[in-house]
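Quick note —
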Amino acid sequence: MKPFTIHIPQPTLDDLRARLANTRWPDEVEGAGWGHGTNRAYLRTLVQYWQDTFDWRKQEAVLNQSAHFRVEVDGVGLHFLHERGRGDHPLPLLLAHGWPDSFYRFHKLLPLLTDPAAHGGRAEDAFDVVVPSLPGYGFSDKPTRPGAGDGRTAALLHRLMTQTLGYARFGATGATWAAASPSGWPWPSPAHWREFT
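Predicted structure written out below.
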């Protein structure tokens, strides 16, 4: 497990800016608004914002205020946030985003979960929060072999929590796509939950 700092190479950002500048705009039915797809005026405004206004370096600095790490689990490089709770016995909690999504989904929750006393709660309700980038997303590796579905992802995240971070018990929640698995989260069936506690 190694600390990780987000830094997108400048040529990648320059390439994005150039691609935005070279957008080929489609024709639009006059007066159609949103009736025939994305409104072109809205899309132009959005592209102009990303090209000329959005400050990625400022966003990187904000993202890097969290504790980021990378580790290899079962041959897959996983990126994750690991924020320790401010309390005597914080409960470990895994927050998994859905597909497509990112770890950023949970950024506003981190201070509330790790330091509830600072937000009107009780210190004894604090959590140690782990937020991974699922394989193929964010700063985790892309899958390189077939079978990278919900079961394999669940196994990777279980190993992250138990073998890498040493938690014997932990809570877990998932978002969007994860709710489609038979168990309501990408763990094996409820009959196997005992293995994760």
